[in-house]
Amino acid sequence: MPLSSGTRIGTYEVEGKLGAGGMGEVYKARDTRLSRHVAIKALPDLVANDPERVARFEREAQVLAALSHPHIGAIYGLEVADSGKSRYLILEFIDGESLATRLVRGAVPFDEAVTYARQMLDALEAAHEKGIVHRDLKPGNVMLTTENQIKILDFGLARVIDSDPTASQSNSPTLTFAATQAGVVLGTAAYMSPEQAKGRVADRRSDVWAFGCVFFEMLTGKRVFDGEDVSETLAAVLRADPDWNALPADVPPGVQILLRRCLARDRKTRIPEIGTVRFLLQDALTQPAAPEPAPVVVAPAKRPLWKRAVPVALAALAAGALGVTAAWYFRPVPARAMTRFGVPLPDGVLFTATGRHNVALSPDGARMVFIGGNRLFLRSMSDFEAKPIQGTDAFSNVTEPVFSPDGQWLAFFASIDNTIKRMAISGGAATTICPAQNPYGMTWGEYGIAFGQAEEKGIMRVSPNGGTPERVVTLKDNEIAHLPQILPGGETVLFTLATGTAVDRWEKADIVVQSLKSGERKRLIAGGSDARYLPTGHLVYAVGGTLLAVAFDLNRLEPTGGPVPVVEGVRRSPGGSTGAAQYGVSANGSLIYVPGAAGSSSAQVDIVVADRNGGLTALKVPTGAYESPRVSPDGKRITFGTQEAKETIVWTFDLAGTSLIQRLTYGGNNRFPIWSSDSKRVTYQSDRDKDLAIFWQLADGTGPVERLTRPNPGESHEPESWSPPPNQTLLFNVRKGTDVTLWMLSLPDKKVTQVTGVHSTASPTGAVFSRDGRWVAYTSTEGTKTTIYVQPFPPTGAKYEVLARGADVPHEVTWSADDKELFYNPRQGGFEAVTVFTQPTVAFGNPSPIPRSFTLGPPSARRAYDVTPDGKFIALAPAGTAAAAGATSVAVPVTAQMKINVVLNWFEELRQRVPR
User: Fold this and answer.
1) Fewer CB in a 10 Å sphere around the end CB: N or C, the chain?
2) Same domain, 830 and 847
């Protein structure tokens, strides 16, 4: 039945009907809890009992939950009422009018139409990167807000690609048939691609066609294809030619060409990617007007070309002998066309070492390296595939690869012995350059190798031939220097300076330069990280998943203009552990980058369930920038955090899979969630009161948020583990600078005391109670030693070390469900279990390896997995891992094969977009 005003659905009170269509009925409602308006979408009565339509309705919820973009209407939840008979999508309420309503008044002015087109392209590209094709883009599904922004709506017909091709093939004709029923898509047939009109499978190119239709209609005020009914309209789509004369005279020729390529009836000749459309639109708008034809001049006859070539060549040789070849080499060269393509990783290879830089480009742009499967791969631009560099797999974990200035050598950090090493690009034996602590970025230039360190180490420089590093920049307590680059002239270093331990420290970091002689420091940019100086006279740096560029005066050491976004969707370090953005730029103008979320500073991952044999099952949770999953003690729910550019949020999810993920926290940045021992509350760190304290609240979102700790100035409190009743004790870290100590809060008496003898440098203790509450396991990192200890609880002063083998750095420890084993991360790429004996004394068995395909982190990161009561693992895996492993329960979008995007001659675009 239609919803009447005053009807309550959960915490939402209906105020009135907004509209209706074949995909659903939409109502305006008020969220009584958060005091905001929302839109509620309900299935029409005629199809409310149709299993396929109900499934499609829920799939729309999952698709929207997977998307987070300023130009896509957001979803807040899925409500189920009437004992499961009624389902409602709770959506973002958008105040404005549809593009269809606007077009009733005629064509949109060119500049305004281009603005809307760009926003549509950004939104569609974000969806396509998630493996989602809209399939029903039309003016009626595009809202214009009162702030003159667009929002794309209605993903009810969206198709998830890159998942199960068989399912997609079988579902597509049914969905297309449903979409052509009379009374459902009278306004949709005009925007169907020819392949959809023929009942064939839609892909990304179908959205390219629909965009072309909508853009044409904005510019002309009339549809590209029209008819008196659906049949005539579909016939026009299949056979009629657009009226290109209808385009206004002020539409640039390049835009007209772009529209023709979007509306190519044969999709093999259509522009294949929305991202390509976006770049081509930019190019079309920046192309200069065609010059007037030059007068025809009759020139005297010339000698044949081959006769003229000989003296030219001889003259060039003579010039070289006279020492003027350098002037010829640096001559102005004509603009070259940019070329874009993607380089997929080899089958079965995933990016590793994602917390630090894991891609690099040689100075001449001829080769790239990346870290996959815990080793270095080299790919020449002239080759078809990447090849592993022999010998790099021996170091267990490598990070921060950089090319030598001549492109023939590589330097990288090897965690197996905490050193920087050098190796020829062909592989072979590696030479140790110097000891180091996991660097925060590294560069190799004509003035040596520079690398960043935390706090007292500052910025170090060392000869590539080896030796003792010299400190060239000293830092204060609580400071971190990231990616130092010694600028031309050798007298100044450029780097990112971050402070504190807050989750957004890299977004709030300063990009600075400092004199190597005087030590004078100058701030260039507030808010950004991972800056590089380019030979074009620009600084490029990262904010979230976007690269920005600013013109830079090298003599005055200051920017000469404002920042301009130049690349969107660059992968960042997961969890904000470092300021690393995964991109590289060559001296000759090529760019490489690992695609990621445009608005996020974290990598996209799936939440998976893994068994001890390495099998994976993906939870019905959309791909996202997740961290720190934790299982409730009763095994029914999980809690986890999301790390985005602007805020961090704590979420919960019912493992039964009967509902969507639920947002738990509002206000401030909230992270590091753990469960209370009775599974009723979630405890987390929050900065909502301007400090980094610990709070908790009921897991169902009701009731108040309560503060549990009050940090001293400069401290950060991080919850770790609750003991079972009756003690009800919380273990938590107190972090001050790089010093981390373990404390405990007794809930009954609210008493806070330090756990004596537990200390770590920079890294969390990861302290966790055994299930019976009698023991605590934790990690201690001091200097270059990282190890795991077990001690009784309450503390007696005794502690027992889990002995490491060789260069192992055991961390990320937790207990098995029966308290008989410890699971931990021994090294990059590893995962082990060790038996624990507590009677008659504490002892440990021999470690046994456990196969895994999920992600574990370095000692500096929090534990990235948890153990369920039935002995399985809840963990994070790179997006698409479960699907690649053959998991069949993936019910959410997954990304395509991991790849590196390459842009040749990128400097041409940079100069146009950011003139000096």
Assistant:
1) N
2) yes
